[in-house]
Amino acid sequence: MISFVILLLICVKCGVSLSPAEVPAANPVNVKFTVDFTAEGGANSWKNDVAKFLYPENEAFVLGTPKYNEKVSTMSSSVVDKLNSLQEYENTLKNVSDKLNSLQEYENSLKNVSDKLNSLQEYENTLKNVSDKLNSLQEYENSLKNVSDKLNSLQEYENTLKNTLVNSLKEYENTLKNVSDKLNSLQEYENTLKNTLVNSLKEYENTLKNTLVNSLQEYENTLKPVFDKLNSLQEHENTLKNLLNQCKYLVGKSQIPLCRLNPVQIFSEAEHAYPTSCKEILKSGKNKSDVYIIKSKTSTKPFAVLCDMETKGGGWTHIQKRFDGSQDFYLPWRDYKFGFGDLMGEFWIGLENIHHMTAFETSELLVELTDTDKNNYYAQYTSFSIGNEKDGYVLDNIGQYSGNAGDSLLQYHLNSKFSTLDVDLDGNDKKCAQLSEGAWWYKATDDCHWSNLNGKFMTLELPDAYLDHGLNWDSKSRANFAGSRMKIRPVGE
């Protein structure tokens, strides 16, 4: 049996012809054809196999005939030609493979060259950095050189300055030495002058002392009688001051009726015929506004009062007067009970006296107000009276109002008890007397009062936060007044 490479048979049968130009570029390929002749079947057996392969449709094709031989010869020539062509193609492929190998080696070489170029680039960058650093070092070296030059200049300046200072110090030292010598001379002169002056002053002191002693002795002998008289007058003055202070205190407390600073018109003390009010005094023919002594019908002792004999027919008794803030009105209960102040200045007559003057006879009330622009207002009530201390000096009666100040007493304070900083009778948790810094017939409501004539004396316009303070009368928009006067007068006399 004969075995052929299938590729060879296909080429012979189909007449394939490949030229070197048709060979694709590829890796080298070794082409090897092998013809295996096997003696199985005899010497012509392979020929029959070829014939069967080539002409399977003609099984009766007879070997050894001229046609057969011609066909075989033709095919053999063609096979040989094809084999030669294949050999050439193999050689061509081998050359191509060699060239490809060469190209591969060249590519590897190029890669190595590229790597070296990259290395060279890195080296070049490194050299550039080194160059930059060298430039920086050069600049730094230049800077150091400049610094060195400046240091040299400074060194030269230092040497010059040192020499100058040394010379100056030497000159200064010489000058100081001269000054020291002069100071020593001055010290000697000072000592000499001091001794001279001390001796002269001692002599003058002794002379002056003797002169003064003699003069003082004469002056003392002359003034001694004068000093004796002054001491006597001083003692009398102190005595009078003590008496005066006691008198003023007792007048304020209604203890002594005749003690007062200013002259008063007094009814005969022997007869004990004191008038009961300023109105009674007016009726007796005394029409001058002044301080008088009265004794109300229920009072046990007479007391001094200030009478107004001119306003609205006269006969008014002042119970309160304020005009300059000289008297403090933020005082405790005892002061308001007995009264305080100066009848010729600011004062409060005392709740006890007001009670005795109003409790048992009908009296009318006149309130006079003066604002900071010197405008005057008044509020007049047909009746007015207060209770006793046991009742808290309650405002138990206020009559009909008239005037131009507006009513800030009747509609709000009627039946209110009197409160001071230490006695709180207003029934209000706020403690209105302390809140308003005064003393009045305060009410048990949030705003405490509509009038507060015994409040703190302030002539400036009050801000909203201090509307409860000050001398005010609410019907005049809580104006802070510069003065107030409260007066009473019996109605029935």
Protein architecture, described:
The protein has 493 residues and is α+β, with helices and mostly antiparallel strands. The chain folds into 2 domains: 6-128, no CATH class; 262-490, Alpha-Beta Complex (Gamma Fibrinogen, Chain A, domain 1), CATH 3.90.215. Helix content is 48%, strand content 12%. The protein has 8 helices and 13 strands. The strands form 2 sheets. Strands 1, 2, 3, 4, 5, 6, 7, 8, 9 and 13 form a 10-stranded antiparallel sheet that branches. A 3-stranded antiparallel sheet has the order 10-11-12, with no helix packed on it. The termini are far apart. Mean pLDDT is 79; it is low at 1-41, 57-61 and 252-271.
Poorly predicted sequence stretches spanning 5 or more consecutive residues? 1-41, 57-61, 252-271
H and E string: HHHHEEEHEEHEEEEHHEEEE
Helix percent band: 40-55%
The CATH superfamily label of the largest domain reads Gamma Fibrinogen, chain A, domain 1
**Arithmetic mean pLDDT:** 79
Tell me the strand percentage band.
5-15%
CATH architecture of the largest domain: Alpha-Beta Complex
Briefly note the CATH topology name of the largest domain.
Gamma Fibrinogen, Chain A, domain 1
First-to-last CA distance: 182 Å
Based on CA atoms alone, the radius of gyration comes out at: 72 Å
Total number of beta strands:
13
InterPro entries: Fibrinogen-like_C, Fibrinogen_a/b/g_C_1, Fibrinogen_a/b/g_C_dom, Fibrinogen_C-term_domain
Protein name: Angiopoietin-related protein 7-like
Pfam families: Fibrinogen_C
Keywords: Coiled coil, Signal
Short account of what is shown:
By secondary structure, this protein is α+β, with helices and mostly antiparallel strands. The chain has helices spanning 6-14, 45-54, 66-252, 278-283, 333-338, 351-358, 410-413, 432-436; strands at residues 291-294, 303-308, 316-322, 340-341, 347-348, 363-370, 376-386, 395-398, 401-403, 451-452, 472-473, 479-480, 483-490.
